[in-house]
Amino acid sequence: MASIFTKIIEGEIPSYKIYEDDKTYAFLDINPETKGHTLVVPKVEVDKIYELSDEDWGALWASVKKIAAHIEEVTGRRVIMKVIGTDVPHAHVHLMPLDETWEYGRTLKLRDEEFEEIRDKLAF
Ligand code: 5GP
Description:
The chain has 124 residues and is of the alpha+beta class. Helix content is 31%, strand content 19%. The protein is built from 3 helices and 5 strands. The protein has helices spanning 4-9, 54-75, 112-122, and strands spanning 17-20, 24-28, 38-42, 79-82, 93-97. It has a 5-stranded antiparallel β-sheet. Strand 1 and strand 2 (24-28) form a beta hairpin. The model has no long low-confidence stretch (mean pLDDT 98). Residues 4, 13, 15, 27-31, 39, 84-88 line the site of guanosine-5'-monophosphate.
């Protein structure tokens, strides 16, 4: 069965998309630790990030670099990142613009309009 992230990539489940290319897809995390918390996902579905082929690994980290620099440029904030993978068995990297409210693992409740506003600022 397709992972929830594959369903998002294929448009079966909606997402606040930030960026897409032929190998990767990035969208706002629905349980953000900071405003702008983004997940960068390889389109190929593997559970563990180190199961990616060298080519897909390279494509994922190239997108992470590009998107992190873009988020920093837009928000003016240092972007922190983490790889966890305990919840969704489809490899992904978390990117979060660091602000003074951030606490590891503590999530914000945002309204749809807030997600849309953040998406509109960050999408490229
Ligand atoms: P991890 O697997 O790295 O521990 O965490 C998975 C992340 O995916 C969590 O931060 C969770 O909020 C996010 N997530 C899970 N399901 C969805 C979803 O359907 N949409 C979005 N945008 N994020 C999700």
